[in-house]
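Explain this record to help learners:
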Amino acid sequence: MVKNKQVQATINASTSFGDYMKHRPDEPLKIAATKGKATEYAIPLKKGADNASLKKAVDNALQEMKNDGTLSKLSVKYFGSDLTTPN
């Protein structure tokens, strides 16, 4: 919308902007301002004992990926920067 001059600015998650710019690095767009606090994301799971082991497995896998650097590498690969640590 900015590119087509329909609006002067938009509000987007940095992940969306990073992905867009990764695929279109020559676009004359920039971040004008950022919010000081990072947005938290979650993986929704159905409540209940049936999913307790799934939640634990997901939590463990994410922690292992964070510890060994995989999560950071994936963030850079898909979003253009490491979004796994606070600003």
